[in-house]
Write a structure and sequence with these properties.
This protein has no helices and 21 strands. The protein is an all-beta fold.
Length: about 240
């Protein structure tokens, strides 16, 4: 499978350039090729395969369907998302909650808007696992991202350190909420790659190439051979930062 071939050290993926489909009950945007949307240049980045931004109307959702050999992370931005699966796990996710599902040898699950009156808005992320045929697992945890504004919160990690959800891939995923005047910095270890996804609001991103980017909700940026990134906002913003092998 081809992936985003990064020539530039910094490559922006604008929100309006993403794939889009509106089925009435589901309004979805695809950062990378997914389902009926295909863009040869955007098949993924490193082990990152999918970033879908989904909005589901009240009481609707994805009926029971299957996955295998994929690490799936769900990050809720607004509303409530209900999950049920074939390994006996289930629950409701609210803003600040993060879900990880390792589909391994195969898992069936459903996802529904838990509310009968409000839309649910969430990001669903797929990572290619470091091994196939793993035992399916499911976990979710609340991280209170909004209450910890101005800092990066480790929500998913390859080693599950610091109470992060453990993922079967060499990836660390951080979430950060920013208020006016906040600045978040992150230094990448040698030979690592980054992806920053703007979940909401507007942010300014500066990298060690002295390049400054102004990004809005839905924008993403791939980072190669970057030593450090700084993120700030003049209003409010929320980002996901991936540290990728």
């Amino acid at each position: 499978m081809s992936q985003l071939q990064q020539v530039e050290k910094v490559k922006v993926r604008k929100a309006e350039a993403r794939g889009h489909a509106n089925y009435g009950w589901l309004n979805t945007h695809h950062t990378f090729s997914f389902a009926g949307y295909f863009d040869r240049e955007y098949m993924g980045f490193r082990s990152l395969r999918v970033i879908n931004e989904d909005r589901v109307t009240p009481g609707d959702g994805f009926g029971t369907h299957g996955h295998r050999d994929m690490e799936i992370i769900t990050y809720v931005l607004a509303g409530a998302l209900e999950h049920r699966d074939s390994i006996g796990k289930g629950g409701v996710l609210y803003p600040g909650d993060v879900q990880h599902m390792s589909t391994g040898t195969g898992i069936m699950h459903s996802e529904y808007n838990h509310s009968r009156s409000e839309n649910v808005h969430f990001l669903q992320i797929w990572l290619q696992p470091n091994s196939k045929g793993l035992k399916p697992t499911y976990n979710q945890r609340s991280f209170d991202i909004a209450k910890n504004s101005g800092k990066l919160n480790l929500v998913v990690a390859k080693d599950g350190r610091d109470e992060a959800l453990k993922v079967n891939q060499d990836v660390d995923l951080f979430a950060g909420a920013l208020k006016q005047g906040d600045r978040i910095s992150y230094a990448f270890p040698a030979n690592r790659y980054g992806w920053v996804q703007v979940a909401r609001g507007e942010v300014d991103i500066e990298v060690d190439t002295d390049e400054k980017l102004s990004l809005k909700a839905g924008d993403g940026v791939a980072l190669s051979e970057i030593k450090e990134v700084s993120i700030s906002t003049n209003s409010n913003g929320e980002i996901l930062l991936f540290d990728l092998a």
